[in-house]
Structures are given as structure tokens and as C-alpha cells.
């Protein structure tokens, strides 16, 4: 089995674990896949997706600092800067860490990239949504 096939297998396994709410298991599998990537990571299409998935899993575990670190690190990978979910999740992490100004900035970036739909799709994810709507940013 070549590296691409192994990474694909790990990605599928990680997705299954995530869907079963086994976030730690998903992180472990996705980290194995990420460890197979050779630097520079921008040569690998999976680098961004894997880092986002790992960060998302940490968020689901309420490990907001680790999740934020993963999301911010992801911004160094291909096409990540224009991915609204990364900014959205980073905004949620900042909110949970009581950094409302950075939260608002990240959520505004997500809004600029995806529109209000990203908030509607994740409305149940926390009060940051309502705080963001009440802020001086009108969406």
C-alpha cells in the first residue's frame, strides 16, 4: 500500500470514529495520517484537511487552546486562508477562551467568506453566535 492509500484509509477510519463521537480515537488516527506526510506540507492535499479535523476534534473535547492552536497552524497550509470553517472554529475557540475581540474578528472573516449561512448551520454551537449578532457587526 502506498502512502496516499494509507492516508486515505486513516482518513476514513478517523471519519468513522468522529461520527461515533470518539474524538480522541479520531485524533490519534488522523495524527498517524498527518505523520505520514513529508515536509513541505503544501505538497500534500491532505495536510489542511487533517489539521482542521484534528482541531475540530479537540474543540469537540472542549480542549479549546489545543483546538485553536491546530486551527491557527492550519492557516499555513494550502488554501486554508480562504476556508470559512477554519476561521469560524477559531472564532469559537477564541470565544470559549474569553477573547471576544479575536473571536469577533475570526467570525467576521468566516462571515465574509461564507455569509450568514455558516452561523445558521452551527447556531447550536454556543452563545458566541448570539454575542456576534449583538455586536456592532451587522449581518
Account of the 3D structure:
The protein is an all-alpha fold and 139 residues long. The chain folds into two domains: 1-63; 82-139, no CATH class. Helices cover 70% and strands 0% of the residues. The chain has eight helices and no strands. It has helices at 3-19, 23-36, 46-60, 64-74, 84-96, 100-114, 117-121, 128-134. Helix 2 packs antiparallel against helix 3 (46-60) and helix 5 (84-96) runs antiparallel to helix 6 (100-114). It is globular, with a radius of gyration of 15 Å. The model has no long low-confidence stretch (mean pLDDT 86).
- Approximate helicity band: 55-70%
What form results from the Cα inertia axes?
globular
Most strands sheet: none
Q: Distance between termini? A: 49 Å
SSE inventory with pairings:
Elements: H1 3-19, H2 23-36, H3 46-60, H4 64-74, H5 84-96, H6 100-114, H7 117-121, H8 128-134
Q: Quick summary of this structure?
A:
Helices cover 70% and strands 0% of the residues.
Features:
139 residues; mainly alpha; 2 domains; 70% helix
Amino acid at each position: 500500500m502506498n502512502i496516499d492509500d494509507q492516508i486515505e484509509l486513516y482518513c476514513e477510519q478517523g471519519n468513522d470514529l468522529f461520527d461515533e463521537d470518539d474524538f480522541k480515537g479520531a485524533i490519534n488516527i488522523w495524527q498517524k495520517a498527518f505523520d505520514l506526510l513529508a515536509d513541505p506540507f503544501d505538497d500534500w492535499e491532505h495536510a489542511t484537511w487533517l489539521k482542521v479535523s484534528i482541531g475540530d476534534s479537540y474543540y469537540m473535547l472542549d480542549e479549546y487552546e489545543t483546538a485553536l492552536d491546530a486551527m491557527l497552524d492550519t492557516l499555513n497550509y494550502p488554501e486554508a486562508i480562504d476556508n470559512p470553517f477554519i476561521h469560524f472554529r477559531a472564532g469559537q475557540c477564541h470565544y470559549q477562551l474569553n477573547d471576544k475581540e479575536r473571536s469577533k474578528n475570526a467570525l467576521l472573516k468566516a462571515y465574509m467568506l461564507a455569509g450568514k449561512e455558516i452561523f445558521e448551520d452551527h447556531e447550536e454551537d454556543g452563545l458566541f453566535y448570539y454575542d456576534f449578532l449583538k455586536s456592532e457587526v451587522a449581518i
